[in-house]
Predict the structure of CS domain-containing protein.
Amino acid sequence: MSGATQTTPEVVWAQRSSKHDEERNYILLTIAAPDIPPKSLKVDLKPTSLTFTGHSETKKTTYHVELVFYEEIDPEKSQTHHTSRDVIFKLRKKELKEEYWPRLLKDSKRVHFLKTDFDKWVDEDEQDAAPDDDLPGGMGGMGGGMPGMEGMGGEGGFGGIDFSKLGGGAGAGGMPDMGDLGGDEDDEDEDNEMPDLEDEGEEEGGKGKGKGKEEEGDEEPAGKKIIEEVS
């Protein structure tokens, strides 16, 4: 790893909560760290924190991030799924309750690498209606301590997760600003009208000049009239 840079990976998260069903009381955490083989991945999951480190030889960088949770989770009942693009954690909340966590981290200070996973997020009052197939399945158990990810499900397979919904870049954010488009059309119309007026003016002016020359050409020179009168 000598000479490799260190990168803080992007982290996105969503959650579910339940006062009675621990299966629906968890944090869904995705760490975007591509091209990390299992042997180069180290995760230390504790009730109050997660430390993630993984080296990518193809990217020539080491991904590293430390997260201190808002409340405690249960490492023994948590799960993970490792792919060539990222590592997904399903972290079981320790306390059963209806209310969502107000944030993921204990510290309320905003961090640039942490974002909401809007593809998986469901409002607190609508989570009971969320279909089960939107939730990850077939994830490997975390085991205890997690010094080297021995309990992971491995890189093979996708574990029933719909990765088309984990991409995050699509949606209204990619749409062009329709207001700007409308303004451009108006400007183009105005630009297109102006040359027409100028062309018409030039044509009329050109015709006027040509006509003047023709009228001037119809008049006989003054010298010629005087010669005819003398003779």
Observations:
- The CA atoms of residues 200 and 206 lie 10 Å apart.
